[in-house]
Automatic annotation (TrEMBL):
Signal peptide extent: none
Name of the protein: Glutathione S-transferase
Residue ranges occupied by any GST N-terminal domain in the UniProt entry: 6-85
Entry's family note: Belongs to the GST superfamily.
GO cellular component: cytoplasm
Domain annotation GST C-terminal: ranges: 94-228
Source organism of the structure: Clonostachys chloroleuca
Amino acid sequence: MASSMDNKITLYTCHIVRAHRVYIVLSELGLPFEEAEIDLSLPRDPSYLEINPRGLVPSLKYNGEILTESAIIAQFLADAHPSHLVLPSNAPDGALQRARIGFFVDASISKVVANLMAFIGAKTDAEGAAHIEAYIEGVVKELEPLLKDAKPFFGGSDKLTLAEALTGSFAIRLLALFKTGVIPSSLETQLKEKAPAFYTWAVAVSAHPSVTGIFNEKAVVDFYKGQIEKHRSPDSEH
Ligand SMILES: N[C@@H](CCC(=O)N[C@@H](CS)C(=O)NCC(=O)O)C(=O)O
């Protein structure tokens, strides 16, 4: 087991949704780290491209080793520092818990979050409304059954798990977008009615200090508002 005393951690970041995953894990593990802010509005500096040739954030330097891809970084930290986030794979039920978390995260991103992103990128309000319908269907079919035993977190846990670390940054954005009317409030009403376990889970996740820690609601809401306006504009090339 790695000790936080031995490890120097630098997170290359810009406080966006994917990097937010790594903050949640670092916060839950109580690991000290340094931040290196990457300005995504500028071309990437060659020194950053040496760290991450794709030029994306987040990246992590851990004892001199570079890791990229938010889910891989989160999993690595959880594996290197065993905790309540996830059982070791060789513990009783460890492999099974990891498979369950993996399926939940995959379904969240590919069947649910993908529809929210499509809503944001839609060219017309009608197209946007169809993606919201698909979002609700995705939650009801894919996630609601997996959250029936949440207490309030995945798998009956009273602490955040790796499932929340990898999806909480999306949940808190969803709730912020309801609250501020960027997403039609009918989505919230429908989720409460059709997917109460998901809704209750999303509220609990979004209130957790490890999830709220770096979250700047105004910046996030302004960003998505701007994206929606840009895509819906008649001059949009997208
Ligand atoms: N699959 C990558 C995606 C990372 C990613 O797309 N990051 C975005 C910010 S959310 C980025 O760096 N964008 C900069 C660019 O595309 O130039 C991960 O999960 O780490």
